[in-house]
Write a structure and sequence with these properties.
Pfam families: OMP_b-brl. The protein is mainly beta. The chain contains two helices and eight strands. The longest helix is centred in the N-terminal third of the chain and has 18 residues.
Amino acid sequence: MKKLFALTALLAAVTFAHAQTEEGNLLVGGNISNFRLDFQDESTTFQMTLTPKIAYFVRDNMALGGYGELGIIASEGNDAIVNYGIGALGRYYISDADVVIVRDSRFFLEANAGFHGNNGAANTNGIGIGFGPGWTYFITENIGLEALLKYNLTVGLGNSTTNNNLNLGVGFQIYLPTRRLAERME
């Protein structure tokens, strides 16, 4: 009886975590990264990047969509540095039950490409790419909290022809079951 209960619980957990990433669903949300607030004797520095995202699951566990990015670094006595970007993104959610470390969570890989810019003392404007692993914890069936570690590279024109960084962001995503909603409305 205990084995049957354990198997049922495991099956329910895998099904619950899979329902959000099935074909036809929509991912809407965003990430906040580079959040920093320094209080120095000489100056105060504020830094933050917001990245809203929207993607459609073209098949189970694979979403394609777009993103925007806007970031700022501001400190007393210095001009503000503005980061921006817009482009396409892709996500692949790993569905292997062996890599689930916490129930109701999923690992994923994200990649993006688009137009990016960094306008500061060393500015770069051009093609931006990024890729890295992430982890989502589903607090409800349709809402996920996530962490994303991403390498970003911008190559183009400006004082500096390249700009790269490793970025840790946290995010909030809503997984909308568009197919189920359409069926209910019919």
